[in-house]
């Protein structure tokens, strides 16, 4: 004899349905938000993941890791500070690094602790060297220029001085621009060569574009196939700040020069007699 299934009261089934449906919708909505967010911020998220991984694996690096050179460019370089620690410059030079910009100063008092060692060792290794100052926008431009010129013994054959302008914490954009202009003017007067202005793409577009176009631009712009500025606007592109170069244990900024090696040599500070003959 067949048994007729006993029906459960409706009240015993409805609560499950009530909470399952909203939960399912919420999970679906969350998945869509995460998917759309990842699609929009994919480059930034991937970048954070890579940097977190690099931090976790730093103790296992040997200093011989190598990032492939960027295709389409023949002149490659790095920029370094005390953050990179002790650098094996002869090894760096053997891996097609033709130029290096070395941090010298910051603000009105800070000297990079490894500037002297890097400055001398890069030169001995045959890497064309330049020096940069990290600009603090709320400090006087003349004082910052004075710190730099008292620290950096630029000579004929060196690359031009660089002003790194990217610190976002400032009170007044007009005041910041005036001090940038002061630093550039005083440093050019001291060394007799026009400085290079460094900035990242976002900061440059927002605060500097159209104000310092007479200065060569070194542009930092990551996670793009090519900088989103016309090629005639920049001379050096910092395309990565998480590269690896044999001779440096850990990440380092990687750059390309827009031009060939002869163009890089022409960018150097000229001999005194040639500078004296050049028109104003």
| Helix content range | 40-55%
How many H/I helices?
A: 8
Average pLDDT rating: 86
Strand order of the largest sheet: 1-2-4-5-6-7-8-9
Q: How far apart are the termini? A: 112 Å
* SSE string: HEHEEHEHEHEHEEEHH
Which term fits the overall shape? globular
What's the gyration radius in Å? 27 Å
Judged by helices, strands and strand pairing, the structural class is alpha/beta
Outline the biggest β-sheet.
Answer: 8 strands, mixed, barrel
Low-confidence stretches are 46-55, 275-280
Describe this structure in words.
There is one protein chain. Helix 4 (about 140-150) links the parallel strand 4 and strand 5. Helix 4 (about 140-150) packs parallel to helix 5. Residues about 45-55 and about 275-280 have low confidence and may be disordered. Strands 1-2-4-5-6-7-8-9 form an eight-stranded mixed barrel, surrounded by four helices. With about 280 residues, the chain is α/β, with parallel strands linked by helices. It contains eight helices and nine strands.
Features:
single chain, 280 residues, 8-stranded mixed β-barrel, 8 helices, 18% strand, disordered C terminus
Chain-wise SSE layout:
Blueprint: H1 10-57, E1 76-80, H2 89-93, E2 97-106, E3 110-111, H3 115-124, E4 128-134, H4 141-151, E5 162-164, H5 173-191, E6 196-200, H6 201-208, E7 217-220, E8 236-243, E9 252-257, H7 261-267, H8 272-277
Parallel strand pairs: 1-2, 2-4, 4-5, 5-6, 6-7, 7-8
Antiparallel strand pairs: 1-9, 2-3, 8-9
